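Request: Not sure, any thoughts?
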Amino acid sequence: MKSYKIILFSTVLALLGTVACTDLEENILDEQLGSNLVNDPSNVQSLINSPYASLRRTIEWSKYWGLQEVTTDEVIIPTRGTDWDDNGAWRQLHLQTWDSDHIRFKQVWEFLTQGYSRANTAIYYISQFDSNETNDLYINEARFLRAYYMYLINDLFGQVPYRAASDQNFSVSPVVLNRKAASDTIISELKAIMPNLETKAQVGSTRATVGAAEALLAKVYLNYETYTGEAKWTEAIQYCDLLIADTDYAVADDYWSMFQYDIAEHSEFILRVPMDDNVDYGDDVQWTNFALHYSQVFGSFTSLWNGPSTTSTFFNTWDMENDARFYDDRIKSVTGFNQGFLVGQQYGLDGTALEQRNGDPLIFVPEINLGSSAENAGIRVIKFAPNPNTADQFRSPNDIPIMRISDIYLIRAEAKMRSGDEPGARADVNYIRSKRNASGKTLPQLSVVTLDDILLERGYELYWEGLRRQDLVRFGKFTDAWQEKPATNASRTIFPVPTSAADVNENLDPSLGN
């Protein structure tokens, strides 16, 4: 599997520059520039690698992850002196005071529409080759990836530029699907390709599989009421049932096992983004140094940024004693810090109490001032265990799950609860909780479950995994007040398309999200 990772994220780059960077609205490519590549059947692997490579952009903390997390109660990035000001970009996300020209909207829009376009390129050119088992499978995987990028665009921006793979007339702007039309198109596409995809047992969780299609259908149906006003709880439950019955997947008894480094296949993983220590991915996929204080150095991690924290609003909801998801110390002997939430006095590898740069003790506290915070302000979070022996701090060996089975149990619980089946919802929530006991402790089972309990459980299970904004929107809480944020207007639940996109496609609606 390691060799596949390297192909996926490095050797494909030459092809991406000539073939697959055709944004749906901008930078339209003269496809003839890459004709020798795209017309050669021996390049089919590179063609399918291209849309897969775009998945890595969905785990970049400063872009897609930032939109899904920094806009919520799970993550806050305060300005600390001259650090993390970034022209107010992070404050605007936290306060939900953005406009169409916010830099993160432009960046995320461009790479998501690029991922869609890369999938279309793969579908179109592989379809020109002879039909065989491999080529047909790759076409269906590319169709899944196109549906996935549509889903992300639809969720964030509420409208999706749509161009069929066969439409090669790039002089005409693509049509734009509204949220219902986009959702229905995604559903139809996934149902069409599902019988033609492989299973996780056959190809692993780095590839689009039957399970990944089922998971995406469950997610679209779960959010269908938010997108269209019409509930689809029965359908959400149906696809969760299929995944939960599939022996390729199982909820981990050890929560933190899936967040260690050099973990490839794991029973929890439905779809993951593969990473490798042999590739320098840049600072956007480094999950350790962006949160740690400058003095928490270890191994090759010598440049730490003292950035994101969690809010006290979210932190104070936890059962800090009984829930294994709150704290784990298995990496402490090689890093000096724990996984989970970092709170209180921090220590170095040798047990020395660490200090701030001014000599004060490094004690992480929940108090934060968004515009001007001390170095120690904010409880930090480390979800993925770093490899202290990695060659440099921008090489990450942590494969990132973007779909996993515990989420599916909680999707089913929510759909059951919203359908009036509280006992069924409670059984699913308590099953997850039964797997999350801290060492020597028992996380209490719930005697009754409410929708608020399910939202809390989703936070405990999936925190910092890029899902929080969508959850808060669905539960009607995204515009609530939390630490350092007042209540905001309901229009904030959709992001506006960037001005640069609206300027080149007259079919986009620039009023949405404004």
